[in-house]
Amino acid sequence: MAQFNPDYIIIGGGISGSVVASRLHERDQSLSILLIEAGPDASNHPNVPGAMTAQLLLHSELDWDYKTTPQRHLNDRECYAGAGKALGGGSVINACGWIRGEKSDYDSWAEVVGDSKWNYQGFLPYFRKVEHYHVSSEEHGSQGPNYTQSVTSSGRQYPLRDPLKNAWIAAGVRHIADANSGSPQGIGELVENRHDSIRQVASTIYSLKGIDVLLNTLVKRVVIEDNETGEKVATGVELANGDIIKAKKEVILAAGAYRTPQVLLLSGVGAKKDLKGISQVVDLAQVGENFHDHMSVSQWWKLRHPENNLAIGSPGFINPKYFTGLPMDWIITQTVPRKGLKDALERDSGKNEDSNLLVASDRAHTESFMVYVARSPENPTIPMNGTHVTTSVVGLLPTSRGSIKLASTDPNDAPLIDPNYYATEADRYVLRTGLRKMAEALNTEAGRDFVEHEVVSEGLVPLTPNSSDEEIDAHVRLHGSTVYHAAGTAIRVIATGSSTTCFRVCFHSYLCSWQAQQQRRILKISPVKNLLGSHFGVIGLDAAFDYVVIGGGTAGLTLATRIAESGKFSVAVIEAGGFPETDNGNLTSIPGNAAYYVGSAPGERNPLIDWETYTEPQPGLGNRTILYTQGKTLGGGSSRNYLLYHRSTIGAYQKWADHVGDQSYTFENLLPYFKRSINFTSPNDDIRLANSTPKYNESAFCPCGGPVKVTYPNWVNALASCGSLLGYQYVQYSLDRDTQTRSSSETSFGRQALTQTTNLNIYKSTLAKKILFDANNTATGVLVNSGGVEYTISANREVILSAGAFRSPQLLLVSGIGNPETLAEHNISLIANRPGVGQNMWDHCLFGVSRAVDVLTHSRLSTPAFAQEQALLYLTNRTGMSTSTGADILGWEKTPHSPTQQLQPKHPRRPRNFPSDWPEIEFLFLDGWSGLQRDFLTGAPRDGKLYGSASAALAAPFSRGNVTISSNDTADNPVVSPNYLVDPRDQEVAIAAFKRILEGVRQSALTVYHTAATNAMGNASDPNAVVDSEAKVIGVKNLRVVDASAFPFFTSWASSEYCL
């Protein structure tokens, strides 16, 4: 094998590979060509030829049988992603539809690439050349290898042919004689790639005689080496068994939209971050990106007169000709209203879309059809007895983009396939329009003659022409699936200059062109239809944006989205973590799981979502060192907190405004912004306990607010119904009322940005190392590290630091802003002398006791049977304990005789007087064990009792902590010392609050994770101030701090509400 050196090696014996091999040999029979196919020769397989046996090929040995990653816009379903694993590829297992497409699609293609040969007229000679069309027409060929048949030409006369046609005509759709003439809009007859009902397999109709074919052989990688001039040249392939075969001329990669990017990545061609440790040979960041696919949505309909033998399964549906092709008659191709599509595109991009090719003309956007059989794996209650039929609506010009990534370096492992279906407003608009049109046609008088009603899965409602977006979206999320038309995953692999690779990439037969330059091949992949930018930054490549936001947490994603939605600026978000849904699953989304990995010393931790920062020994807590839980994930603390949403007092905001000399920080002036971010929904009183109706002020919210969801949980703690509630309230949650799932900055602002903008890029799993400055102390960008690769993300306008109360001061210090003595200790050059960086740390200190109670509490969840019961309640109807974190009653008080007025201040510079409405104590009634606060899940006694906890937090602490650095590397955790209870006034308030001895408090105290003010806001004349009232870092330019570290002092509320 190793001694066989053909002229050409073609990887993949599918449609494109077979065509290219055959055409090369046809052009020059002296060429030696090796075609390598991972699957077998299926030409004699009994299920391949016939129309009705094609379904048996799916999930068979002739199918790669892939699944997508969970699709977050489709209920996190893993969708089937079939692909032909046989000589002939997709032509072995596909549905044999022969659909040329619309003239304007090809004309747009030519316009995008600036080359007229890609327009419809440029393609037409080749369309004719490959066709042996079933009717004579100047538009079609008659001598090509691909035979076609229509429903009529194959003699199929289905009973519903005319009734279905009449229903669509009644809905305003015109009939067309030839849907394959470049103008397919209307209702036209199905055409299939069959000859006398037999499937036309590419490897059969394109002769492979004279070509060496290697079957059942998997290629691991393309071998790429430097030639004598230093250019990268593909010299051969390495097989999965380690054998290497050299090519004299070229390697041609034609393994399809799934396998082609996988082979490229395994060959070291791609972004370094995607190579799984494989040595990078060519840096082509778009390998595996730009993945797009047609998505369809199926529906099932009960027939009005099934006794007329209308569908498969009926006793009389037995005409042999019915089974010589797909059991269907028509393809209905339609456009959508341009204004509605333009509006949707503008919601996606944030800019004017008048020139977008998708709205430049009335292009075909949907394809619909009815199959005379009922097949519903999603709804097995639908019988296959001739009483039901299936319809599908397909979106033809998707704007959603996904990716193909390596799961491992083993070519036997399936790649990670993420189509990112239904991710854009444009795609949603198109499918909603198509589904409404389907409902309109079948609800015409002609349609009602043969269709009784739609049969829907549990939880859905039958669709009508007037169905809401939400009703249609529910159908799509449950029943959306691929049409197996994946494309685009090597679409922007353009080799130029010295990085030329001497091989070609082919897929979908027509997607490639190549040109000669200096007697070598330059790869040029032509774009398919419209292309959109990715929402994720290219790891390892320097890039520039208008704004660079460090930290994708509560404040960071909020601010980045607000900037991006203007459509005027490009924004990059640098986040050290990833998506919490991926890294923490349901433990993030479901409120009842909020206690996981929380406590001063939890037994289990998840480093994927937590920085694992430990404090210094705390004198006020008996010299204990405690774990300070933080959100190292998109959404930051809002993805990890207890979901409690409450604002501070009017006096607190007024004090802030007075302190920084800027009245825009008063409650009155901030309220419109609070309203703008929050979408409040009233509690579901039909589910909550009868005596637990909360009181709330609707004027504090706005119906137009959003995207953060705020409501009350469906579960009410029994403890909350005991005794007087004077001075207390049911607390609101950052919670989606309908789904009872967490609403964080990631699920709200982040997802809004990902679906409605194109100018925001997220660099996830990327650590900010240092803020970069020019000679004028102007922030110019950020040095970052992704998987060991350092590169620079530059800011044309500003760098915005939003890394939280610990990481923001750390980044300022390692970048040269802070106390000169601290910087000198770590050999850091001074940029700005601001000794207040990392000082003035405020935090709420939590303490309390737990006692056995005689009412039902979350403690019962330690019983497996009860936990299973509650999980079932949550999954089926979003009720039960899992909808609550265990805390739903909060109270605020001042102590009757405030120790703060009696004790001499230890630090006279600190404010002596809090506003009159500023409470000193926050009381929390927890529906479970808190005990010594070590581990909220496993710390409870194993005695079978039910527990409740009475806890308190210092709402007006006087103890001040600090944050500093242990090195000049942000990969090392900062040094954190909150200094809880070191001020005697805090000790007195704690004792007064809970009436227990000081030692008891010391043993149970813990943070509420509300750290703030470590980069305190103030006037430039104050040496302890770090930022001014506009959050700009004093002493440098183009750098702001936008997170809780910029608070001038702490207030009596949780910090996330202000950040949102």
TrEMBL record:
Keywords: FAD, Flavoprotein. It holds the Pfam family GMC_oxred_N. Residues 143-156 have a biased composition (Polar residues). One of its GO terms (biological process) is secondary metabolite biosynthetic process. GO terms for molecular function: flavin adenine dinucleotide binding; oxidoreductase activity, acting on CH-OH group of donors. Residues 137-157 are annotated as: Disordered. Gene3D superfamilies: FAD/NAD(P)-binding domain, Glucose Oxidase, domain 3. The keyword Flavoprotein applies. PANTHER family: GLUCOSE-METHANOL-CHOLINE GMC OXIDOREDUCTASE, GMC OXIDOREDUCTASE (AFU_ORTHOLOGUE AFUA_2G01770)-RELATED. Belongs to the GMC oxidoreductase family. This is Glucose-methanol-choline oxidoreductase N-terminal domain-containing protein. It comes from Monilinia fructigena. The lineage of its organism: Eukaryota, Fungi, Dikarya, Ascomycota, Pezizomycotina.
